[in-house]
Request: fold
Amino acid sequence: MVKSGGGEPGGLIVQISGLLPSLSPAEQRVARLVIADPADAARRTITELATAAGTSEATVIRFCRSVGMEGYPQLRIRLAAEAARRIEPADTRVIGGDIPPDADMAQIIATIAFNDARAVEETAEQLDADTCEQVVQALANAKRIDVFGVGASGTVASDFQQKLHRIGRTAFYWPDVHTALASAALLSKGDVALGISHTGTTSDCIDVLRQARQQGATTVALTNFPRSPITEVADYVLTTAARETTYRSGATASRLAQLTVIDCLFVGVAARDRAATQRALAATAESVADRRINPGRRRG
Amino acid sequence: MVKSGGGEPGGLIVQISGLLPSLSPAEQRVARLVIADPADAARRTITELATAAGTSEATVIRFCRSVGMEGYPQLRIRLAAEAARRIEPADTRVIGGDIPPDADMAQIIATIAFNDARAVEETAEQLDADTCEQVVQALANAKRIDVFGVGASGTVASDFQQKLHRIGRTAFYWPDVHTALASAALLSKGDVALGISHTGTTSDCIDVLRQARQQGATTVALTNFPRSPITEVADYVLTTAARETTYRSGATASRLAQLTVIDCLFVGVAARDRAATQRALAATAESVADRRINPGRRRG
DNA sequence: CTTCATATGAAAGTAAGTTTCACTCGTGCC
DNA sequence: GGCACGAGTGAAACTTACTTTCATATGAAG
Reply:
C-alpha cells in the first residue's frame, strides 16, 4: 500500500493529530500533551513528559516510534523546530482551537477561516506528489471509475464524479451502499475505485473498496487518518490534514481539505489531455448558458 | 509569548558569532561548526559534534556554558528552533496564478492549495460581521428556512440545509426549481430564503429569491459578485472572494469560499444555543455510530 | 475457561551528557 | 636555567537520560 503522508516534511503536529485515533490510550495522552504545547514538550526530558502524561518513559518512546521518529531526542528537536516556525503574530494565537461560547461574529469568522485555510494548506503540505501522480495515472487510464462516500464525504464524492464526467471520463457515484457494492462487483483490473471517509472507519465505504479490490480494480482511499481501517483495503492512500474542533461536528474543515485533494487529482487528470478537456469543458459550459441572465450593471 | 529557559533573546547564532573571539581555540572550532550549519549541529550528539570539531565532549559543554546555555540538550533544541525559523518559503510567489501546461504534480498541488487557501482567507477578510450577525439572527428566529442553489452551489446549499437540520432548525433544500418556487410561495414574514449562486446570474436562483421576497420573507444571497443581478432581490448580500482561474471550471476555490461562509453562519446560529446544539449534535452523531467500525491499531 | 494478542510499567541495560582531575604548555619570577 | 602558576584541554569517572527487555494486567476471541 502506498501512503501519501509518508515523507515527513513540515506538519509533524498535524501528522500526530491524524495518527491520534490509531494510538493506544497512554500514547494518546502523550500525543495530546505534545499537540497542546509542542514547545513545552521539547523543553522537557522524557521522564518529565512521561510523568506529565501519567505514564512511563517506555510509553513515550513507543509514542515516538508510532509517529515515525527514531527516539525521544529526535522528537524533541523536531518539536522545537516546529514550535519555532509556528510562532504567529500574537493575536493569531487566539484564533486556533475552539470557539469560545461568548464569541462575537467577527471572532467566529476569523476562527473558522483560519482553521479552514490551515486545513487546506497543511493537507497540501503533507500530500505526497508521487502517490498523487500514480493515482492520476490510474484515473486517466481507467475504463471506469467508481467514487464512493457517505454523509459529508458523499458530497465530495459526488463532486468528483461530476468533475470527471465533465472532462469525458467514465465515472460513477453511488449514494447507496447496495448499488455501490453491485457496481464494484463489476469493476475489473485497470478500473479505479475511490472511497472517501474522513474517519476511515465507515464500514460501508470500506466494504465497497474491498469488493472493488477483489475484482482487481485499483483502490484509492481518501481519509484523515493514515492508519484507519480503510487504508487496509486501499492500494493508494491519500490523507487530509484537518484537526476537527469538537464543536463543529459539521466537519467543514475536513471537507475543504478533501475537496482540495480531489481538485488536485482532477486537475492532474485534466492536464494529461488539455485540449480534449478544454473542448469538453466549453461544451458543458455552453449547455447551461441559457440558464443565466445578463449580468446587470449597478451604480456604486 | 514565553521564551524558553535561558532568558536570552532570539538570535543565538548571532550571539555566538559575537562571542567567537572571546572563546578558547577549541571552543572556537565548535562555534564555527555550529554557525556554519545549526540544523546539522542540532542533529548530532555531543560526542559526534566533539569529534567533528576535533575536540572532546568536555569542551563542547564548556562552549554551551560560554554562550549562556545550561547544557548540550538545551543548546540543541535552541539550534533546531533557530534553524527552522530561518527556512523561508522558497517558492511561494511562483505559486499564484494559473497552472502551466507542463506542471508536475507537486506544482499542481502547491498552486491549487495556495489558491484555495487564499480564497478562504480573502473571503473571511471581506465578509461583513454585522451583515452576518443580522443574517444569523434572521436564521435563528425563522420558523422556516429555504436554501436554494443549483449545480456546484447546490452542493453547498444542501450542505447548509443538513447542518441546520442537525441542530434542530427547520430548513429545506429544493434541488429543483419548480418545487423550490412552490415552497418559496409558502414562506412568510420572518422566514428566511437563502440563495447561493457563484456568478449571481443564475436565473432559477434569482426567481426563487424574488418569489420569497414577495411573500415577505427575508432574502439572503451568497455570491462572488457584489453587483450581480441576484443582489437586487436580496435583503442581505454575503460575498465570497474567489478569483477563478479559467482552467479550473470545476470552481473548487469558490466552493470552498462558499462553504466557509456557510460554516460561519452555521456556527453563529449554533452558538446562540450551545446546549441545545450539543445535544442535537450528539444525538445525530450517535445515530451513525453503528455504521462505523473500531479504529484499527496497526504496528508501525 | 482457556488462549491469544495488546497495552503497559518496572527494572535492567545502554548511551549520552557532565564533572572531575591530571596533564600540557606558555608565562613570569627567582 | 629552574620553578611556580594558570589557562586550556582531554581521559576517565560519574550521573543522568534514554532505550530495551520482560512480566503482568487486561480484554477480546475461541
About this structure: Residues 45-47, 57-58, 60-61, 71-73 of chain A lie near DNA strand D (CB under 10 Å from a C1'). Chain A has two domains: 10-86, 126-287.
